[in-house]
Specification:
It is a single chain. By secondary structure, the protein is of the alpha+beta class. Among the domains are: 49 residues, Methyl-coenzyme M Reductase, Chain A, domain 1 (Alpha-Beta Complex); 160 residues, 2-Layer Sandwich (Alpha-Beta Plaits), CATH 3.30.70. Helix content is 51%, strand content 8%. It contains 16 helices and six strands. The strands form two sheets. Strands 4-5-3-6 form a four-stranded antiparallel β-sheet. The radius of gyration is 24 Å and the shape is globular. The relative contact order is 0.13.
């Protein structure tokens, strides 16, 4: 009823008929439009129509994929070495703080250094930001808290210790470019947008000359040498750049979902959260739409995250 009402209004507004199941049924048989029982989203107690689980109708699914596609991790060590050894610049907590202020101004699409530039509207790019993380507690304490990912607060103690040991004294930037940019372009744009704004921010924060040779080293570090993409580039026959779903390694995806951080003592819940997110992204969006097309594979994937089907089966397996 809701779809019919909306479709009639759309047809009146645009002057072209669209959704019309009564006319388009196969020999009068309602193939595809019969009323289905509602689904429970596993573990939540929330019941939804099957249509709500198609990614076109589901903003949460879209945002999950947006947040992966618009993210990139960029190292600061190579850039700091370039500033110190090539240009004789001093790199201190104070200069890093200043750089992060400039970067969080520039990353959404604001101008630094250059004149006669247009800028993006802050309200349209409010989801864009950059924070840093390091295993060096002393350095982290000297930086403004608004710019720091506090590993100790975000992870259980054992995980935090492992992460900080692995990262050591190096420093990395977690860059999240505006959603609208990666939607308008693609995941391959993320590293380019990020690198351009990082380069301009270094020039502005460290009072560099934009034309000097060291800028090329900073650009290379920001775009290639010091970069961790969320997904690798695919073979040419798949025609997708990096940071697109087919190139996400499953192990990396588990880390992106972060359910082991949220449910460290519940391996079943932790695993099933990953399975739910994975079937949505890889089956519904990647295989169902990127690779196949049309209305896609929603019903193929829903068994993994509805009605506690997989939850009960998995818990039974763990118990017995």
């Amino acid at each position: 009823v809701e779809f019919m009402k909306e479709a009639q209004e759309v047809a009146m507004d645009r002057g072209i008929s669209g959704y019309d199941p009564k006319r388009c049924h196969c020999g009068g048989i309602p193939l595809g439009q019969r009323q289905l029982t509602t689904y429970e989203v596993s573990t939540t107690g929330v019941f939804v129509e099957g249509d709500d689980l198609h990614f076109v109708n589901n903003a949460a699914m879209q945002q999950m994929w947006d947040d992966i596609r618009r993210t990139i991790i960029v190292g600061l060590d190579l850039a700091h070495q370039t500033l110190q050894k090539r240009l004789g610049k001093e790199v201190t907590p104070e200069t890093i703080n200043e750089y992060l202020h400039v970067l969080n101004h520039a990353m959404p699409g604001a101008a630094v250094v250059q004149e006669h530039m247009v800028e993006t509207h802050p309200a349209l790019t409010e989801d864009c930001y950059v924070k840093v993380f390091t295993g060096d507690d002393e350095m982290a304490d000297d930086l403004e808290p608004q710019f720091v990912l506090n590993v100790d607060k975000l992870f259980p103690a054992k995980m935090a210790a492992q992460l900080k040991t692995a990262v050591g004294k190096s420093m990395w930037q977690a860059v999240h470019i505006p959603t609208t940019v990666s939607r308008t372009c693609d995941g391959g744009t993320t590293s380019r947008w990020s690198a351009m704004q990082i380069g301009m921010s270094f020039i502005g924060a460290y009072k560099m000359c934009a034309g000097e040779a060291a800028v090329a080293d900073l650009a290379f570090a920001a775009k290639h040498a010091g970069v961790i993409q969320m997904a690798d580039i695919l073979p040419a026959r798949r025609a997708r750049g990096p940071n697109e779903p087919g190139g996400i390694k499953f192990g990396h995806f588990c880390d992106m979902v972060q359910s082991d951080r949220k449910y460290p003592n519940d391996p079943v819940r932790s695993s099933l959260e990953i399975v739910a997110a994975g079937t949505m992204l890889f089956d519904q969006i990647w295989l169902g739409s990127y690779m196949s097309g049309g209305v896609g594979f929603t019903q193929y994937a829903t068994a993994a995250y509805t009605d506690n089907i997989l939850d009960d089966f998995t818990q039974y397996g763990v118990d017995y």
